[in-house]
Fold each of these.
Amino acid sequence: MLDRKLIAEKLEECARRLATRGAEGLPLEEIVRLDRRRKELQHAFDEARNQQSQLGPRIQQAMKRGEEASDLKAQSAELKAAVREHEASLREVEAQLHELLLTVPNLPHPEAPLGGEDDGVVVRTEGEPKEFDFEPKDHVALCEASGLALLGERASKLAGASFVTFLGEGARLVRALINFFLDLHTREHGYTEVSPPFVANRETMTGTGQLPKFEEELYAIPRDGLYLIPTAEVPVTNLWRNEMIPGERLPLAYCAYTPCFRREAGAAGKMTRGLKRLHQFDKVELVRFCHPEASDEQHQLLLRHAEEPLRRLGLHYRIKELATGDLGFAAARCYDIEAHSPATGEWLEVSSVSTFTDFQARRANIRFKDPKAPGSKGKARKGFVHTLNGSGLALPRVIVALLETYQRPEGGAVVPEALRPYLDGRELLGA
RNA sequence: GGAGGGUUGGCUGAGCGGUCGAAAGCACCUGAUUUGAAAUCAGGAGGCCCGCAAGGGCUCGGGGGUUCGAAUCCCUCACCCUCCGCCA
C-alpha cells in the first residue's frame, strides 16, 4: 500500500513511476479526493465528539443540584446523533479509500531497469556451463529412468496434473535439500527458523498483497475462510502484523520451510512437463524486516544468502535484475536467481529476491519504534519497517538442475559434496 | 464439541454507571544526597492517531448495544485457565 500523503503531494511523479511498471488507469485522483474528504469528516467527527463529552460533567453537576437537566440531555442526544452520522460517513469513506489503495501496486525502485519481461539485466553469471561427452538427458527422462519422481498418470491420480510424487531416494533428496538449506541459513547466515501454518486467513493474505487482486492464484478452503499459502512469505511476514517492532531488534531475519500451493491460473498455455511448474512445491524462504534506510543494503545481503546454496551445490546460475514491467505487485526491486538446465539450455528461476520497501508493512501495519535516547526529550522515532524476502531456494527446479548437471551416461547422478552429509554420505543417486 | 472462570498501563494489581486515562507497588526518567554506585528523599511520566503548533480525537482484549454519560451493565467474537467429551 502506498502512502496517501505521498500520492497527494506527488501525484504526477507517482503516476509516472507506476506507469513504468505498466500500471495505468489507477484511481490516483480519486484517492486524493477521498483522502481530502476523509480529513474533513474526521474533523467534523472530532468536533462533535468534543462538544458532547463536555456536556457530561455539566449534566452531572446539574443533577447534583437536583435539577432535571433535560435541556442539556436533549442537547447531548442531538450531538450524539451528529457524531454517529459523521462516524458512519467517515467509515464509509475510509473503506472506499482503503479498497482503492489496495489495488495500487508498489512504486518501482528508482534504480530498477525500465522495461518489460525481456528487459531484465543479467547482473552476473556464476559457475561454468556443464559440458558433456555424451548426449545429456533432460530431467523428465532422468526421473523416468531412475524412478526418483513420479511424473505421469500414476502421480496425477492423486490430485491431478502438476502434482508430483517423489519416491525412495527422490523423496530422500527432497528432505536432504530442505535440511541443507535450513542448516545453511540458520547456522551460517543467522536466520531464525520458523515453522508456520500452511493455511492463512484473508487478512493475512491481504497483508502481503495476495488478496484482493490475486484470489485466482490461491487454493481456498471456503468452509473455514482459509487459503493454502503460496509461499512462506505470507505467514512469516504476517507474524508481525499490527505490531510495533522494538527498533533495537532490527534487522529481523527468518527462514521457513513450507510447501507452496499455487493454482497457476494465469499460466495456461505455459504448461510444461516435469518438475518445472507445479501446483505444489517445497521451498525454504528467507524473510527480513529492517529500518527503512537499511533496505538496499539488506537486499544485497539477502541476495548473497539466497544464492549460496547453488554455489555450494556447484551449479551454474545467473542473477537477473527484473525490469520495472516484470515486477511483482508488491515488489519495488527484484533479482531472480536462475539455475541453468544443461539439457535444455534454459535458465530456471529458483529464487526471486525482492524488496518491498514499506509497501507490505503499510498493508499489514508493521512498524518499528526506536528506543528513546536516554535523557533526551526528543520523541522516539517511529515508522513502517521495510520488508524483504527471497527463496533460499525453491526445490523442484533445483532438483532439475541437479539431476541434469550431475547425470552419468550409465544412469543415476553424482551427489555434490555439500549434500552428501544429508544423504548418509551417498555419492550416487538413482543408479 | 459441551460447562464454567478470566483478559485493566512495561510488569504486579485496585477500580459504587458520572473530573477514571484509571489507585497502589515494581520498573522507568529528572533532581538532591554521594568521589561514584546502592540506599534514601523530592518531583515526573501510559499508549496511539491527526496537527508546524496550539489543540483535538481514540484507548481498560476486538466489535456492537443500553444510557445524557460505560473500564464498570448487556450481546458477540478472539485468546487464556479449569472440568467433561474426542483425538495424532
Note: The radius of gyration of chain A is 27 Å.
Amino acid sequence: MARNKGAKGQESRARLLAAAAEQFAGLGFYETKISSIVAQAGLTQPSFYLYFESKEAVFEELVGHFRSRLRELVASSRLESGLQPGEVNARVLGVLETLFRFFTEDPHLTRIGLFQAPQAGSIKAELAALIRDNLLEEQRSGYFRSTLDMDVVAQCFIGTLERLTFAYLSEGAGNPEQLAAQVVELFMRGMLPEK
Amino acid sequence: MARNKGAKGQESRARLLAAAAEQFAGLGFYETKISSIVAQAGLTQPSFYLYFESKEAVFEELVGHFRSRLRELVASSRLESGLQPGEVNARVLGVLETLFRFFTEDPHLTRIGLFQAPQAGSIKAELAALIRDNLLEEQRSGYFRSTLDMDVVAQCFIGTLERLTFAYLSEGAGNPEQLAAQVVELFMRGMLPEK
Amino acid sequence: MARNKGAKGQESRARLLAAAAEQFAGLGFYETKISSIVAQAGLTQPSFYLYFESKEAVFEELVGHFRSRLRELVASSRLESGLQPGEVNARVLGVLETLFRFFTEDPHLTRIGLFQAPQAGSIKAELAALIRDNLLEEQRSGYFRSTLDMDVVAQCFIGTLERLTFAYLSEGAGNPEQLAAQVVELFMRGMLPEK
Amino acid sequence: MARNKGAKGQESRARLLAAAAEQFAGLGFYETKISSIVAQAGLTQPSFYLYFESKEAVFEELVGHFRSRLRELVASSRLESGLQPGEVNARVLGVLETLFRFFTEDPHLTRIGLFQAPQAGSIKAELAALIRDNLLEEQRSGYFRSTLDMDVVAQCFIGTLERLTFAYLSEGAGNPEQLAAQVVELFMRGMLPEK
DNA sequence: CATGAATGAGTGTTCATTCAT
DNA sequence: GATGAATGAACACTCATTCAT
C-alpha cells in the first residue's frame, strides 16, 4: 500500500497527488473531498486507497515534502565561515532570494505548508530557529549588531517572507529578487553594526 | 434571531460565544462541534440555534468582531499631522504597541481572525492597506526615506506583528512594549531618512 | 386546558384558531409551524399550549368543525317525503347550491377538511353515504331511474362538487348558484326516468 | 447522480423507487422516512443518496413519472376527426376506461400524483384542460349539446374519475369497464344533443 | 490497475413542547 | 394571561472508507 511500481501506477499516483495539492491549497483540508480529488485525477474513489492510506495520509505526505525540502534548503545555505564583512549584505540577500524562490516554485505546497497545515506553526518555528542559528553565528562573528535579539529578528524575517510571498508572489506580482532587495534595504541598516 | 433581550438570555449567548471562540481558535472551524460548544456553555444543542443561525454564523460573528475592532483601532491611530521629526519613532512605537496589545488582549479572537478565518488573507490585506496609507502620509511629509515602497513595508510590518504575536505573546512570553521596541529598533534605521 | 373563559382568552384562542386554519389550508399540516401560527396571532409559543393540547389537537379541532357542520347540513337537507315529481330538479339544485355555498363560505376549513386531513377520505365517504341515502329514497319513490347505482352516482356528485369548488369557487370565479345549475343540467337527464 | 449504470445498481434504484412510492402513497411525504424506505429496499441510508439527490427529489421523480405518463395517455387518446355520431358514446367510454385503467394500474403513483403531491391541483387542472379541449372539438363538430360549458364538464369528469377511482378501484372493488359504463350512462344523456 | 456498489459513523439543524417566572 | 428560555427527540444528509469483482 506504500509504493506501487508500474509506470501507469506511478502516473496515477502523481496525478492524485497533484490534484490533492491543488485542492488542499485552494480549499483547505476539510473542504477538499476525496471525491473531488479523484474526479480531477480521472480516477475513482477506491483507486485513491490503492496509493494512499487515508485522506490524512496524502495531506501529511504533502506537508512532509514541503517541510523536508525547506529543511534541506536552509541547511544548504548555512554560512560558510570566513565571510568578508562586505559580503554580509549579499549573503542575506541570497538567502532571502532563495527562500522567496522556493516559496514561489510550488505555490500549492507552500500554501499548504505555511497556512493549511496544523503544523504550520511548528514549521515556521523550525524555520525561524534555523535562521536564528545562522544569524547568531554571524552575530558572534561581529557581522551584526550585538544588541539584537536574533530570535526576534528571525521571526521578523519569517513573517516578512510569508506575508510578501502571499501578497505578491502568489498573486503573480513582483519577483523574488526585487522583493528580496527591498527587504534587505529595509532590514540591513538596522542590523549592521554602527560604523 | 440575534436579539434576545432578557439578562439570562444575554448571559447564555455570551457563554456560547466565548466557548465558540475558544474552540474555534484551538481546533479550527471543522473540528469544533456544536455539541462541544454547547456542552462547554452548559446548554443543549437547540439552545444554540436560539442565539445563532448556524455554525457558520457564529464563526462569522467572531470574525466580524475581530475585523471591525481592528478597523476602529487602526482608524483611531491615524497620524495627526503636524508631527515633529523627533516624534516619528515614538509614533511608530505607539502604533506597534497598540496592535500588539490588541492582538494579545483577546487571543482566541486574534487566532480566529488571523489564522482560522478563510478571510484571514483579506483581513491582513486590509490592515496592510491601512498601515500603508499611514506610512505614505508620513513619507510625503518627509519623515521616511522616499525610496521605500510603503506597500512592501506595510506587509513587512504585518508579517512581523503576526509572527511575533504568535511566537511570543500567545505563548505568554515577552510583552507588547518590549517587542514593539525591538521591532522599532530593527526597522527604523532602514526607514528614517539619511541624515 | 380545554376552555379558557375570560374575554381576552377567548379572543386569543380565536385568533390562534383562525391563524391555524389559514396556514393549515395553505401549507398543509407539516409545513405549518406552531411558531408561525403564534406569530400570526400575535402571541408566543407557550400561549398556544394554554388553549390547545398540541398541534394535532388544533388540526383535529378544525377538521372536527368541518365534519360536524357538514353532517348537520346534509342531515337538515333530508328530503321531506311527499315530493312532487316536478320538484325533483329544484330539490337537487337546492342541495347542490347549499353544498357549494357551504364549501365556499369557509374556504380554509373546506380545504383542510377535503384535502389536508388524513380523514379526508372518510369524510367524503360519509358525505357520499348520506347523499346516496337521500338519492335511494328518491329512487324508491320513483323519482330516479331504477337502473342507476346510487352509490356510484353519489360519488360522482362528491367528485364533481369537490372539483368545481376548487377549480372555480376557491379561485373566486363563478358562483354557487350558477355552478349548481350547470351540474343539474348535466346530470339530470341521465337521472330522471325516461318519459 | 441519477445515472448509475450497472445492473445491480439499477436494481437497487428500482427497489428504492418502489419502496418510496409505496410509503409516500400510504403515509404521505412527511411521515415517510428515508430510514424506512431504505430498510424496505434492503439498503442503508447512504445508498439512497447514491441514487437520489434528496427526499424531495425521489418524490418529484415519482410525481414527474405520473404526470408525464398521464400526459402521453391523454395526448394519444385525442379524437380522430371524422367520427360518426353513433360512435361518440363508445369514444367517451373508451377514454374513461383508459383513464380508470391507468389510475388502477399503479395505485401508489396515482395516489401520490392525485393526492399527496402539492402539485396535485395543477396536475388535475392540466388534465381537465386536455379533456376540455377534446370535448370542445367534439362539441364544435356537433356531437355535444352546444349549451354545455365544456370547462365545467371536464372538471366534472375529473372529479368523478378521481372519486370513483379511490372509492372503488383502490379498494379492489368494481372494475374499470363497469365503472366507465355507469359514468357514461349517467353523463351522456345530458351531453348528447336533443334529438 | 481499476471500478460499481455499498456502508459506519457522525453532524448540523428543526420543531413541538415545557419550565419557571 | 402571557413570556423568555430551554430541551428531547428525531431526521436528512455527508463523507471517508471498503467489498467484491
Note: The mean pLDDT of chain B is 90.
Amino acid sequence: MFSKSTEYALRATIYIARQSSIHKKVSIQEIAEGIGAPKHFTAKILQQLSNKNAQIVSSISGPSGGFYITEEASKKPIYIVVEAMGENTVIESCVLGLPNCNDATPCSMHKSYKGIKKELLGMFKNRTINEVANSKDCLTPVYFNRNK
Amino acid sequence: MFSKSTEYALRATIYIARQSSIHKKVSIQEIAEGIGAPKHFTAKILQQLSNKNAQIVSSISGPSGGFYITEEASKKPIYIVVEAMGENTVIESCVLGLPNCNDATPCSMHKSYKGIKKELLGMFKNRTINEVANSKDCLTPVYFNRNK
DNA sequence: ATTATTAAAGATAATTTTGTCCTTAATTTT
DNA sequence: AAAATTAAGGACAAAATTATCTTTAATAAT
C-alpha cells in the first residue's frame, strides 16, 4: 500500500511516541533496530518528519540526545505522517490511478471504492499518534523486529 | 495504492473487456491511447496478462488481430488482474509492512485495518471483470483519457 | 508469393526508490 | 578545553520501476 519510506516513517513515529510517553529519548541506532529498517535510511526519514513543515518529531544532538515527540505533536492524527511523506494521495485518489475520476465522472470502481476510501482515511485522520502508539489492541511488548 | 503497472493492467483489462463485450478486438495502440498509458509499456503488461499462468487476456497477431477477453475469463473476479501483477500483497498485508503482523501478534493498526482490508479484498474478489467493465455506476461513455 | 498489419520478445535507457558512506555541526561529559 | 556522543547534511551507489526502441514472428489481405 505505502512505500517503504512511509512504512518506516509510521513505524518510527510509533516507536518514538511509545518511548516519549515514558519520557525516553531514542537514538537513530535504536529506532532503526527497533523498527527493522536500515539505519541511514531511517535517519533520512526522521529528517523529513522533523523538518520545519512537518514538525512531527523533535531531536537534540549530542550525548543523551536523540529523538522524541512532544505531547502536543502526539495528539495530532497519525495522518500527518503519511502527509509528511507525501503519500496521502495513496489513500485519497482513484484505485485505477485516473486523474479525472470523481463523483461526477466516476471510474468503474469509484462507487465501490468510495466508502472504503472514507474508512481508510478515517483510520488515519481520527486516530492520534499517541492513541496508535499506545493502543491496547496491540498487546505484544515489542512491536517491531520480533524475528531478529 | 497500486504501482503504475497494476493500474495500467486494471485499466487495460477493463478497456478490453468493454470492447470484447461488443465483439471487438483492440490493438495495443488503441488500448494505450484509451487508457492513457505508454504504448510499449502497455504491451509488456498485456504480455503478463496473457501468459500461460495468467490467461486473462487473449490475442491474435496480424491484420484484424488484437486483444480480446473470452466470456469465460470475463466471468472471473477482477482480483486475478491484481494477482497476475503480483500486487495482491498490497491489499492483503500489514499497513506498516510488518511481516509478522497477524491476529495473534497484531501491530498497532491491525485491528482498525482488518475490516477495511476485508472490504478492499471483497471489492476485488466479489466483482467479475465483466461486472466492473460494464458497470452501470460508470455512466461516462469513455472511461479513460478524457483530457487528451 | 508479396506486402501490410499486428503482437511477441529482447535490449536498452531513464527515472525513482531505496540504501550506504562520510563529513560536519551540535551538545554533553570528562 | 578536550573528548565523546549524537543528529544533520551531502554525496554516492544499488536496485527496482517505468519507459522506449528495435527486431522478429504470426497472420491476413492483396
Note: Chain A has a mean pLDDT of 93.
Amino acid sequence: MDSGIKRPGVTSSEVARRAGVSQSAVSRTFTPGASIAPKTRAKVLAAAKELGYRPNAIARSLITNKSRIIAVVMAYLENLFYPDVLEELGRQLAAQNYRLLLFTGSMARDSDPVFDQIMQYRVDGIILASTSLSSELSEECAAAGIPVVLFNRTTERDAVSSVTTRNREGGRRIGEFLLAGGHRRFGYIAGLETSSTNRDRYAGFAEALAEGGHTDIAIGTGNYSRADAEAAAREMLALPDRPDALFVANDHMAVAVMDVARYEFGLSIPQDLSIVGYDDVGPARWTSYGITTMSQPLKRMVDATVDILMEQISSGEIEAEHRILSGELVVRTSARVPESGVVEIDGRRVFKPKG
Amino acid sequence: MDSGIKRPGVTSSEVARRAGVSQSAVSRTFTPGASIAPKTRAKVLAAAKELGYRPNAIARSLITNKSRIIAVVMAYLENLFYPDVLEELGRQLAAQNYRLLLFTGSMARDSDPVFDQIMQYRVDGIILASTSLSSELSEECAAAGIPVVLFNRTTERDAVSSVTTRNREGGRRIGEFLLAGGHRRFGYIAGLETSSTNRDRYAGFAEALAEGGHTDIAIGTGNYSRADAEAAAREMLALPDRPDALFVANDHMAVAVMDVARYEFGLSIPQDLSIVGYDDVGPARWTSYGITTMSQPLKRMVDATVDILMEQISSGEIEAEHRILSGELVVRTSARVPESGVVEIDGRRVFKPKG
DNA sequence: CTGAAAGCGCTTACAG
DNA sequence: CTGAAAGCGCTTACAG
C-alpha cells in the first residue's frame, strides 16, 4: 500500500503514463457518466492512487465554463441568524457539490470591488444576504448569465430573485397579538430604514394597530445593530408616556432592548413592558430572554434559495423568481399572553387568532 | 459613456482586437508590474471598459499555479466566537487580495471529503478552526506545499502551524481568581475532551487550585455545546455538596450554565455561585450575563494566522510556526470579585494578581 | 515596450 | 471503448 502522498504537480498525463493509457482515459475515469471500460478505469484508479492524483478543478472549470462555486455575500455575522444561515447554506451547497466563496464584513457593504472579484472567479451563482445590490450590478450579472438570489431581502429589479417571509403579515400578527394582550401604548424599534424587511414589518404592524384604533406609534431606529437599538430603547423608555408594548424589528436588537429595559430602567418584562422580536434566533430561546417572536423558517428559506439557484444554473434561464414563506408567532415569556388565540403546536406555543 | 454590460465570454483576445493591440498587451495591462507603455495601457483599458472585460481568474490561476483562495474549515458557527473570527478573517484576507472558501457544518467534521475539495481547488492555504486534521492529511498538504494553520487549536504534527492563546496560564489565572474570591468548592464544565484547548485550560486550573490546597474538582462535560453543558450543569448543581465556583471552558457554554443555575436552581449569581468563562465573546458582555472571562485576542489571533500564511505562501517554505498570544481575565459580574488584584485598564476591569 | 508562440491541466468532439 | 488533437483564457519567456 503506497502512502498516497501527493507531489505538487501530479497531472492526468502522469497518471496516464503510469497506467499505460491515454490522458483522455484518465479524464474519463474522473468524469461521471463518461464512457470508459471498467478495466481501464481500474488501471487508472490504481495509478491515480499511487501518485496521489486529484483532478485539477481549476483546469476543469476553465474548459467546462462552470466553477461550481457560489458566492455568498453577507455583510455582517454579528446577528446569529446569519451564521445559522451560512451553516445551512454550506451544508446544502456541499450536498449539491458546490463550494461556497464567502464575502463578509465592511468590504461587502461597498459592492463594487466585491463584484469585481465575483465576476473574475466566474462563480455560478450569487447569494446576497444582508446586502443589496445596485441595479447596474444586478443587470450585469444577468447579462453574464449569473443567477442572483436575495436572501431575506427583496427588490424590484427584474433579474434578481428573492426569498423572504411574509414580513407584512408577520408585522400584522405581532400587532394583533399585542392588541389582544390589552396593551395601550405601542412602540417600534426599526431595523435599517432602507431595507424591505423593515418597511414591510412596520407596515403590517401599523396596519393592525390602526385597525385596533391606535395610530400613535413611538418610533426609534435601531438599524439592526445592538448599539443603535440600545440608544433607541433608552430614548423611548425615558418618554413620559412610555410604551407598554414594543415591537423590535429583529431578535438581535430585542435582546439588547430587553437588557436596557431591565437593567437600566428596572422594568419587569412582561409586567411593565412587553417585547416582541423577529427571526426566532438562538438567544430568543435562552431562558434569560425567552423572546416572543415571529419565526423565520431558516431551513426552508435556504432550501428555496438553493433550489432557485440550481434551477437557473441548470436551465441557463434567468427569470426572477420570488419565493415567499410563512413563519409563526412563537409565544414565550417576553410579552403578555392574550387570553385566547394561543395554541400549542408540536410542543411550542404559537399565536393563531380566530383559530 | 457605455453601459459596461458584460456579455458571457469577453476574453482578452476580444479586447485586444478592439484596442488594436496584441493579446499579450491586454494581459500586461492587467498584470501589476508588467512592462507596458502608458498609451497602450490606456487604449486597452478603454476597450476593456467598453466590452465589460474582467480577467478570468480561473485561467490566470491555471497558469500561475496560484488560486489566491484560502480554505477556511470551521466545524460549527453556533458559538459566536467563530463568526467573529470569520468576519475578521474575511476582512484581512480581502485586504491581502485573497478569497475565502468556506467549509462548515457536519461535512467539516469528517475531513476527508473536504480535503478532497480543497486539494482539487488548489487553494493556496488552509485555516482550520474548531476542527483538527488527521496526520495523513496534514502531511499530504505539506507534501503538496500548501500551508496549514490551526486556529485556536494546536497539535504535535510537524508540518502544521498554529495560533493559540496561553490556555494553561488562562486556566491558572482563573483558578487564582476564584481562590482569591474565597471560594471553597470548585467545578469544571469541560469542552471537547479531545481538544488541546480544553486539556490546557483544565490543567492550568487544576494546578492553581492544587497550589491553593484544593484537589477535589467536580467535573462535567459540555463538549463545547449548549445542550451538553446544560445537562452537565444540571447534574453538577444537583450535587449535595455543589460547587460555589464554576469554571466553564468557554463563554458559549457559560451562558447556558448561567441560565440553568438561575432559572432551574434559583441560584443567585455570584452570591450563591460564581461562574467564569473563556473567550470574551459577545453575550459575555450582555448585561444579563456579564461574564467574568479570559479574553482571547481575536484580532491579534487572526493577524497572526494571516501573517503565517502569507509568509509561507511567499517563501514557499513550510516550516511549522506556533504563535501563542496572551489574554486577560476580564472581570464582570458573574463571579465574586476578590478584595485585591483587580485593576482597571483601558476602562475595563482585569484581574492581575501581585500587581 | 511589443507580439508571436508555447503551455498551464483539463474536457470533448472526432475518427476509429 | 479509446486515443490524438483542438482549445478553454490566460501568463510569460523569447526575440525583436
Note: Residues 21-25, 28, 35-37, 40, 59, 61-65 of chain B lie near DNA strand C (CB under 10 Å from a C1').
